[in-house]
Records
---
Amino acid sequence: MDPRRIWFDPPHVRWGRVVATVLIASALVGLWVAQRRGLFDEPQNRVVVAAGAAASGVSPRGERNAVPEAAAMVAAAPPAKAASSVELVCGLGAVSFDPGDEKQLEALTDEANKKLLAHRKRVLPGWIEEMKSSTDEQVQAAGWLLEARDVWLGRTEWAQSPESTDALEELARVAQRSRDPLIYALAVQSCEIYRVRTTPAACRGLSVEEWAQRDPGNAFPWLFGMGGEGVDAQRRSLYAERALASETIRSSWGTSYSILAKAAPRDEAPLDRSVRFRESLSIDSYVSLVRSGVLEHCKDSELRQGARRQQCELLATFMTDKSESLMEAEFGNAIGRRLGWSADRLARLDKQRQALSEMTPKDADFAGCDGLARAEAYFADVSKYGERGALRRRQQAAR
């Protein structure tokens, strides 16, 4: 068993950022990765946080309660002693081990993961039912999304699943009633990902145009729409122009934790916190990806056209400069390489990207309750400031 593997591996997921998400989530049980990186060889900077801390809600890119700033946690982390005993998953207690015995580490990881999965099976159905009846629209939408996802994952390939369709219908209806752009974003993406043979009627009532109206100034709906089924070259060009007229690129990646945290009690049990956090990253690993329509629009054969080349030049610069996420910025870099950007320009962008990437939390950072608190704080910052904003804050705190 590869201990880095999350429970949910969608067959269509190929992007590197999703792999990174999976690794971060699986880091809660990735002890052997920690050992290989020297976690137990030298004293580490660690934050010790009470098991019940950091469980309250976060408003996406707004105010939040009780979750400490991730950047501050990086700056304030006290030194800790090297150990041969560690808590893999918050709520399961510490285990003793031989850091040099990889087979033992893998066995302990496997056992911890099984216990976490067993607890998930016990608690998640009740959580979903409570969330579906919540008065908070975001929490309610997340409940229907989780139900649609679980039914979709449990179906046999190509089989029609009425339950999944029902959950998607309800999610789409919540989005249609709401003016919240995040709910609408999750619904549009979920209706595409979790549909089976037919698209639910309510999902057909959702549109990129309506999504953009709910989130003015954000290019992400238009970029996402460029990869839609049946979208021809003319419409892609129109969507690209509307994207370029926007102010920023803000996807919903990294916001799921803030939603699920709002559904948690203040005194949430440590093991429940572990399950809730992993569920949030599972949602993020499925949704909020710019589909390949942008790269298809700016593929090499299309760049021979003068008008298309000019538009793709603008798109590449816009995505590189204005995206709140590393992945969409890298899409811009990829188009820039196709356009023949200078080596100096590409090197400068790569240096900036690498500097931010180095601030991304490592797998070993998220083990145990203190690691879970760091993970919660980091994704709270992502929800509020965007991924690149959260990483810049970590940069500043580390200086």
---
Amino acid sequence: MTLHTQPVAQHPQKPGSFSKKFAPRFGMLCLMSAVLLSGCVSTGEYEAEKAKALNFQRLLAQEEQRTDELDARLQEMQQEVSSLGSQNRELTAERDALQDQVSQQQARVQDGDASDSASDMDLSPDMSFSDPTLSEFDLSDFSFDESEFNDLGIEQADAGRMDMERSDDTGMGTPTHHTVAKGETLYRISHTYGVTVEQLKKWNNLTDNIIFPGQRLIVSRP
């Protein structure tokens, strides 16, 4: 069996017919690709901005928390400063009061020393180390003989010896007394009665070597 085929008629294509047929489709494809690409880029930027915003919010929350903590700390420090200020004022008041008390005590001590000095001067006007000169009292016309004072001291010393001898004769053991004359010292009296200065101070409860005229001293062992 034989088949008879007929040749297919081929139509010659005109130049540029293919480009005109697919040009609109290719343009649409490019446009869609551009739209899709632009959409992808916008989504990535959005996610990045969103992440930045979330990070900023987190940092802002941390800063707010730190600010609250610092405010609380500041309030505590202000309270401590106020408390320290009140304590400082109290201590200052106590210090001022103590200073006033010390000043009053010092004033009292000074007044007491002044009164004691005045009383000592009243009781013993002849206890000064240097007697005033006669010219100060306008007594230059008066003259004194030193032998008179020496005789007076000798007479009193003799009287003291006589008293001591009388006490030895009686055997009663009573101490001998001596009345201090002007110009006499403990050394002179001790030499007169044959005792030491320390013994005289001990028997008469003296703290120093100062004596005054008219004072009655024990010159023998009690």
---
Amino acid sequence: MDVANATSATNGSSQAGKAAAVFGKDFDTFLQLLTTQLQYQDPLSPMDSTQFTQQLVSFTSVEQQIATNKNLESIISRLASQDIAGAVAYIGKEVYAVGDKAPLQNGQASWNYGLDLRAEETKITVRDGAGRVVYETKGETAPGAHTFEWDGRTNSGGTAPDGIYSLEVAATSAAGNAIGSNIFIRGIVEGVERVAGENLLAINGVLLPVDNIQSIGLPKPNDPSS
């Protein structure tokens, strides 16, 4: 888990605390000056209190702003805790999610993809972690959902090493127009990581936002990853 991001709310509260400490010190100084001036003022020519009144109003405004910020930080911290608690509930569940990355393990990798319309031609491309083309083949042309299974074979006839690979689906009509497509993965949620304030689910070694989840259920009894 990303500790730096997980503790962002705590750091925010610390900043609010520092601001409150500085405010308190300045306000004490202001009161001391006001008391001293009142003590030594000329009774026949009392001081103009307008300036001190304006300063007092300013201090009151700052105090209210600091209190508001502290309340907001407390609310954000509670919401973040509830958010990650909700994400933890996905752990151990099988999910179907939008995502183009999947692991190749023991010569097996699997994706699901869908075509919006019937295609004249569908090209499937597998890329490695560096974005290099590893394998290309033709895909299904019928509209709807399809599954692509990859055994790790490469264009050069070799075998790709285990790791994370991404899939691209390019479908075109008879007129050469692009046809919309979507790529999905299926797997078991292994954990939750908080990155840049967002909860990400670890699925087969790939991190995906919770919003990418399309369906969720219990792992199948014969699923080796369950």
